[in-house]
């Protein structure tokens, strides 16, 4: 069990790329997320990744969770160019994910692969984590690290080693019950705003923090 990736909201693609580039980070790829009114950018970090969402002008499907509205609210609240809005915890053992999902009354979705570079995965907790934003979604990749989005190639000017810290405003007891423990690097503080800031390590020993100051 470890942090798989963190989702951050941006006001535009251009602003996201600029904010990342100031820290030596670059984008591997991006695409439209159908039905949600947002597009994404993937920033690979080795064994973890960042996923940046920004509005693309499409009208969201009202039958789907209101991701775009929640992200607009976060961006209206905080002035930072990149604001963490969600996080996902990865499980190497899919049965551990299914057991936790059952204990917490979560539905589990098996998402099929979408072609080369878009492997299948199993997901739980998407939707409920938008109500209690300090809780993550749970994810399992049935493929090795080398075939996950974390391992994509990107023209970074500094070499990231992964996510080394994540501050969450919420209830630690909830997080531990949801995940079966507290994931490494996660610190829970008072409040209910959910993810606040994410720290990324680099191979020169330096780390940077993105999110709410």
What's the short story on this structure?
With 213 residues, the chain is α+β, with helices and mostly antiparallel strands.
CATH superfamily: 2,3-Dihydroxybiphenyl 1,2-Dioxygenase, domain 1
Mean pLDDT: 95
Q: What percentage of amino acids are in beta strands?
A: 35-45%
Alpha plus pi helix count: 5
The main pleated sheet reads as: 8 strands, mixed
Rough shape? Answer: globular
Contiguous uncertain segments of 5+ residues: none
What is the number of E strands? 12
CATH hierarchy, class:
Alpha Beta
* Order of secondary-structure elements: EHEEEHEHEEHEEHEEE
Estimate nothing, just give the exact number of structural domains. Answer: 1
Biggest sheet: strands side by side, in what order?
2-3-4-1-5-8-7-6
* SSE class: alpha+beta
Could you explain how this protein is built, in words?
- By secondary structure, the chain is α+β, with helices and mostly antiparallel strands.
- The protein has a single domain, classed as 2,3-Dihydroxybiphenyl 1,2-Dioxygenase, domain 1.
- The protein has 5 helices and 12 strands.
- The strands form 2 sheets. It has an 8-stranded mixed β-sheet. A 4-stranded mixed β-sheet has the order 10-9-11-12, with no helix packed on it.
- It is globular and about 40 Å long.
- The two termini are 27 Å apart.
- The model has no long low-confidence stretch (mean pLDDT 95).
């Amino acid at each position: 069990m470890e942090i798989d990736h963190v989702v951050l909201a941006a006001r535009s693609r251009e602003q996201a790329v600029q904010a990342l580039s100031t820290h030596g980070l670059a984008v591997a790829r991006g695409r439209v997320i159908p039905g949600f009114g947002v597009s994404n950018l993937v920033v690979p970090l080795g064994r973890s990744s960042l996923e940046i969402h920004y509005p693309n002008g499409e009208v969201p499907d009202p039958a789907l969770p209101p991701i775009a509205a929640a992200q607009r609210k976060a961006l209206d609240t905080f002035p930072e160019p990149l604001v963490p809005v969600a996080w996902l915890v990865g499980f190497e053992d899919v049965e551990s994910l299914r057991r936790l999902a059952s204990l917490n009354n979560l539905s589990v979705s098996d998402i099929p692969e979408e072609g080369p570079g878009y492997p299948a995965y199993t997901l739980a907790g998407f939707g409920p984590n938008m109500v209690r934003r300090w809780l993550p979604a749970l994810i399992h990749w049935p493929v090795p690290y080398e075939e996950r989005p974390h391992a994509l190639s990107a023209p970074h000017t500094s070499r990231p080693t992964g996510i080394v810290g994540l501050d969450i405003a919420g209830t630690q007891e909830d997080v531990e019950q949801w995940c079966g423990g507290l994931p490494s690097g996660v610190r829970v503080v008072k409040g209910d705003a959910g993810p606040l800031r994410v720290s990324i390590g680099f191979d020169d020993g330096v780390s940077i923090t993105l999110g709410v100051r």
